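help with these C-alpha cells:
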Amino acid sequence: MNCCHRLLILLLALAPIGAGHAIELASKEIFIPSSTPGVRINGYAYYSETEGTKMIRQYGQQTVSDKSDVAYQEVSLDNGKTWKPLDVIVTNRPLEEGTWRHGIRGGFADPDQGLLINILTRGVFPTDNPLEGMTQWTLHYRLSRIDANGEPILLYQSPILESGRDSTPESPLTGVTIGHNAAMIGDMTCAMVKIDSGEVLQPVQISPTGPDGHFHNPGGGYTYHNSAVLIGKWNDRKTIDWRLSQLVVADPEKTTRGLLEPTVSQFDDGRILMVMRASNDKRPELPSYRWYSVSEDRGRTWSEAQPWTYTNGENFFSPSSCSMLLKHSNGKTYWIGNINPENSHGNLPRYPFLIGEVDPESLLLVKDSLCTLDDRQEGDWERLLLSNFFAQEDRVSHEIVVYMSPLFRKVPEPTADGKKPPLDWTADLYRYRVDVD
C-alpha cells in the first residue's frame, strides 16, 4: 500500500459519519393503515408536554377534499411506541341552519406554562360546501394537560377574540366579520411557535372583503387569502390575550389565490421568517413561486412579500401546496415542501417532496442541502399528491419525523362506459424519519 492510499484511508477514517449527507431519509413506514377502501387516513402526532415522551396523535378519515368524516384522538406515554384511545372527535353535526363542522389544528406544549395549547376551528356551513369556510370558520383555543395515566384534563376553552378592542364572536378580529369573511388555520403545517418575548405566534390566513363588505376574490382562483399571525401573550389569569398582526398581502396579478397557509420560524437574531403558499390557478402563465416575508418586531409588522429563492438568487417553482418551517435542536431551521423542475400548474404536481436548510443570514433556501423524501415512482399516477403533512423533532433520536398520507398514487381503472373514473381516496398515513446532522 503506497502512502497516497494510506493517506486516503486516514482521511476517510477521520471524516464524520454521514459526511456529504447532512440530511438523509432514514426510514418510511405505515403509521396508521386505511382499513376501508376509499378512505384516506390523514393526521399527525405531537408532544403533549414540554419535556418527556407523552404524545397525542389525532387522525381523521377523509373521502372528499377539505372535510373529515370522523376523527380520533389517542395518547402515548412511550414516545409513540404504543397508543391507547382517548376519544372520538365529533367533526360534524346536522343543524337546522346547516352542518356544524369542527376540527383540531395540532397542539403546542408551552415550555413556560406547562400547558398544552390547541387551536380549534368551528363553523356552520349552510350547504356543507367547503368554500363556505371563506365566511364561516371561527377560531377557538383550548388549554389542557395530560395526567400521569394519559387522560386529558381540560382547563380552559374560549373563542379567540382580539384584546384591546370591542371583539365579539361575530367580529372576533380586526377586519373579520363572520358571515362576510373569516380567519382560519390553513393546514397542519401552520404550526404555533414560541418566540423570545415569551409570546406564541399562530399563523393564520384571512379571507378579504371587497367594497360591499363581503368576501372578495380579486385573483379569480379557487379561493383568496391574506396571511398573518395571531400573537398570544399569557395574562395573570393563566389564559391568553390575542392580537392580530399586520396582514401580509399579495398582488392578485402575481398570485391568483393570494398568500395562504403561512409557516413561521424565529432565528437567533430575532427576525421571524414567514413562508407562504401562492398559486397560478386559472393563470398558468404566471410563475409558480413560493413567497416570503420577514418581521423584525416579533411578528407585529411584516415586510412586503417577495418570491422566496435559493441563496444564490435563483428562483424555483413550487405548486400551491402547504409547506413547513421547523427549528431543530441543532440550531438549524429546515423547510419541508414540494419543488417542481418546471412551472407548476396551480396545485400540481405535488411531487417531489423535499426537505432543505434555511440560511440564517439571508433567510433563503440552501439549494445544495435539499434531500428528496418521496417522489413519483414508475407506474404512479401523475395526479399523485405528496402533501398535507406535519413534522416535528423526535425528542429521543432527534430525527425529524414527518407524517403524511400520499394520495392518488394508483392510476384509476378505466370505466366500461368511457366516463371519467371516480377518484380513489384510499391512503395510509405514513411516518418518515429523517436524519439531520
